Amino acid sequence: MNTYSPLLLTEAASRALENAGLIGEHSNLVARVLIDADMRGHGSHGLMLLPLYLQRIREGGIIADATAEWLVESPPIAVVDAHGGPGQVAANAAAERCAELARGSAISAVAVRNNNHIGMLAAYRMAFQKRGIIGMILNIAGASVAAPGGSRATLGNNAFCLIAPTSRQEPFVIDFATGIVACGKIREALMKGNQVPTEWLMDRTGAPSTDPNDLDSGGAVPLFGGYKGLGLSIMIELLAGVVAGHTVSPMVNRQRAHLDRPMHCSQFFIGVNPSSFAVDSLEPFIEQLHDAVRSSYENQPPSRVYFPDQQEAFCHTLAEQNGLTITSEVRRLLDLP
Amino acid sequence: MNTYSPLLLTEAASRALENAGLIGEHSNLVARVLIDADMRGHGSHGLMLLPLYLQRIREGGIIADATAEWLVESPPIAVVDAHGGPGQVAANAAAERCAELARGSAISAVAVRNNNHIGMLAAYRMAFQKRGIIGMILNIAGASVAAPGGSRATLGNNAFCLIAPTSRQEPFVIDFATGIVACGKIREALMKGNQVPTEWLMDRTGAPSTDPNDLDSGGAVPLFGGYKGLGLSIMIELLAGVVAGHTVSPMVNRQRAHLDRPMHCSQFFIGVNPSSFAVDSLEPFIEQLHDAVRSSYENQPPSRVYFPDQQEAFCHTLAEQNGLTITSEVRRLLDLP
Q1: What is the interface pTM, i.e. ipTM, of the complex?
Q2: Nearest CB partner across the interface for A235, out of B162, B226, B228
Q3: Inter-chain contact B248–A289, Cβ cutoff 8 Å?
Q4: Is the pTM of this model over 0.90?
Q5: Regarding the domain delimited by B2-179+223-279+321-334, which CATH topology (the fold level of the hierarchy) does it fall under?
Q6: Tens-place pLDDT, residues B44-67
Q7: Which fold has domain A67-279?
Q8: I need a labelling partner for B14 at 20 to 30 A (CA). Which of A116, A127, A297, B192 fits?
Q9: Which of A233, A266, A296 to mutate to test the interface with B (most CBs of B within 10 A)?
Q10: How does B303-312 read in b/e, with b if 16+ C-beta sit within 10 Å?
Q11: B243, A270 in Cβ contact below 8 A?
Q12: CA B309 to chain CA mean position, Å
């Protein structure tokens, strides 16, 4: 694996997407979303996806020149139909619109329907950060997750993201899938020739598996958090699925299984303006929460303090300093030395 | 234990609260919220709380005659200061206002600050159900929960509730605490002389405990769902704590530890109008999700299908048929035969 600067990789990925049929502005956006995930240490949602995206563009799953259409523009809400285009395009438009609406109306929602994979949800954080808005992003995906105690993949690995604006460059972000692990993490292991922990995956018979191949061979990822995790996943289904997309995750096409069909996944964005509730800054409160988490370990110091976002910030700094490594497949695709 | 009709218990509890200083309308509301929890099978949030509420009224923790004050009334949001009154009063007003605002504005939020314990969040479901609005209720509580891998109680057992309206009498409801169990469930075991499962509780040293006394002796409840559960809890902190209450859970008074002080807990209500997004009915989608969960067990049928809300509906029907049993302490307090 060779190492390249994030900027060079963004330009190369953007070129590849433009060559595949995306307009320049869109190709650059998709490339930036992918590279951003790599920089935050989530290779699962990074350039690793580019070969798949290009294949889906070729086969019709991603309609390269689709134009997102605003169906509802009625503050404080809006609805956009992505018409099966690159998922990042409609998602980015929705994030910007949602944060803008929240500035004027204190709370807002934007629904995206008929969309494709939008990458890491946290990639849309800056729309909220730059306007001082708390953002929530909910996303449904095709069935890959088993219900608590179940073993067949019948629910989406639905995802949740919270963005809290700060006075620093980066907002505070929570971003997680409702499966015990994002499916991309299993595919990342597959690509690197690694096994996965047994708690990540079941095979087609429902037995715990360490073989990442099982994910796309009838296997399933367990839900996180038992029936409470299921509750959160159903909340995402009702808002991102039903309200935004008039669908539920079992009806969403899996992007690898149906290369020639748009996923028809959907997203729900919520914006809340803290200043409308007389909150000047979230930061002292976030610091108090950080202290509370830290002091929870006083009896038995753990090896690692679990507070969200620290790992991502650390990875981002490293990537800025050292660049990013890519697989040989992506290197060939990008025509890099 | 004797058995009484829910109606008789509501009237008796209402009388006891009125005698303690609540105005008639408020005493009836608080009583109905408590009995509703008993009927749904959550005795932890039912009449079991009445002795504590009465003691807190006597000692000043609940200000019986406080008047909730609307600080912001600016559609689509509103903010109400409960001024340390009975928690249910401001919560009920907020739920009604939130659902009403969502009918007009598609999405709405109502914040409640300086409040006390509001009981089971699902108790406020009918404000949303009768108007066809999806409701979310977020609540922060005093520190009783340890961070993932930690063992000291430094975070609130924050709670989340989702209400999805249906055409039936009852909405579909998800309602859970972010601790592995609601604190009330541990106190219910204490009252009944039962032990608790080791995964519910740690003692003051951080060791797993089966003794429910440990909850109020420096013990802690683990968070559900590891770092993802922590993410959800922090989401609740930022909306229900910071935005609504200008506080975080470590600053909230625990109602048993500070009988003479209002808890200063706070809540955030969100309403979403499905019809603004062209959704006529949520029910066929909820049915699809139910089928997806059920079919997840096809490989290995479990003893129980984990789909939210079924257990509560079952308990409610039983309680209507057979009445409710109460403890001898509550029976004496209510002056019942």
Answers
A1: 0.96
A2: B162
A3: yes
A4: yes
A5: Ribosomal Protein S8; Chain: A, domain 1 (3.30.1370)
A6: 999 999 999 999 999 999 999 999
A7: Ribosomal Protein S8; Chain: A, domain 1 (3.30.1370)
A8: B192
A9: A296
A10: eebbbbbeeb
A11: no
A12: 14
